[in-house]
Amino acid sequence: MRHPRALVSSIASQRIEILFGYAMQNFEDRKLSSAYVAHLERLSMHHRIRLPKRINDSICRKCHSVLVPGKTLSIRVIGKKRAFAYKCLNCGSAKLVSFEIATNKEK
Ligand SMILES: [Zn+2]
């Protein structure tokens, strides 16, 4: 029996959230957390689910480690590009993560 795609996707995204939570809890155990991250990446690819930005920005696509500022991640701010320069401290790979500058429009 085939299950409806929407149901399967919602279960898969719940599992991705749970796996990300486990990976964050166990970020000090590099082997375990990278296994969780590799699994959630595989899930998202298999079910063609886009990872939420929150999760996508907190994992290293190269070594599958969880990026925790000060522990496994160094952050620099590049104001001109409105982006953070993320550098994974496990494998040294770098990426740019854009951010929005809050403006006080509601006055
Ligand atoms: Zn890395």
UniProtKB/TrEMBL annotation:
Biological process (GO), any one: tRNA 5'-leader removal
Gene3D superfamilies referenced in this protein's UniProt entry, alphabetically: 6.20.50.20, Immunoglobulin FC, subunit C
The keyword rRNA-binding appears for this protein: no
Coiled coil: none
Source domain of life: Archaea
Gene Ontology CC entries for this record: ribonuclease P complex
GO MF term list: endonuclease activity; hydrolase activity; metal ion binding
Record key words, sorted: Cytoplasm, Endonuclease, Hydrolase, Metal-binding, Nuclease, tRNA processing, Zinc
Keyword Cytoplasm annotated: yes
Protein name: RNAse P, Rpr2/Rpp21 subunit
